[in-house]
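Quarterly update from the structural biology core.
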Amino acid sequence: MIKFQPMKDKKKINQNRAKAKQKQDAKRKQKKVFKNVQVIHRPALSNIQAPEGFKAVSNSQAMMYYAEPVISKNKISGEGNITGLNAAFKVAVSIWNFTNTLIPRSDEEKRNEKSQILELINETLDLEGASPEDFFEIMLQRKNNLFPEEVQPKDAPMYVFQRKIDTFQIEAFDMSKLQIPENRNVEIADSKALLEKLSKLEKSISEEADYDDYEELLFELKKDIIKAFTDWQKAWNIEEIDLENFLFAIEMYFDFTYAYMHEDITSFHKMKERYIEEFFLDFAIRKVMQEASAFPSWTAAIIVFYEFLVDLIYLDKKQAKKIQQYVKDVEPRFLGYLQESN
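Predicted structure, tokenized:
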């Protein structure tokens, strides 16, 4: 059983990121020296076979779902309130870890731990008259119902099996909603500056420059591309269909392409089929915490994004169609996983 750690503050997060970067740099150097290194690949989330009635989710997704009742009763509420969110997660993580039978504790230690959790619940949550003891028991039952210990994977510590509650039909995005003409003549504002930034970023990555040297460019470019795409799409009425989700998908695809470690150097125009599969069948569904019903438009978003890249004169139509076909080919498996896991 997984033991969750409470959410950390920003300073601690930055320290952890620095340590992670040091490990990545060490791995990169090691890769240059040793040619016969064996790489152990983590199975994609979509390839994890869950027991009937359950679905495989990442640990972070499991905790987010488990903590929903705690977050809803948090005394320090408000969108974007990190202090309140951290306090709520501390409660949820404490109750989750209380059920961990792999942690050796005496009966007295269990009683003390429970007493501390009840005090934390009382300090953090607005129970509207209910007792901390009752809420504690409700959360214990929620944990045992959603994530029963007897079905959890023994060899995949990065995943847990979550019981399916509500299921619904997953429908493919209707591409006929998008009226983007094949033959069009569109100019994108500041395209030259965008192309120069893209070229500079890709050159830095291909030369294995230090991440700190191009981190600022990375975030600046992502912001510029999202703005340019937002302006470009106005001619095709995407805003009336699902613009917010399109932009989210494109942001995640940008991060996957340029800010995520791959075995090969990747870019928008050199995207291999196996990386398109990895993006949809593992990265997106593992990294993003949203309902399965919000994902079907992601394939359309990436297909349309490559139309934008053609108009940007970043790549030609032939290159774009090749990668768009990769997306179309993986879509049935992507939708199948969403249907199976919702």
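The chain has two domains: 10-24+31-163, 175-341.
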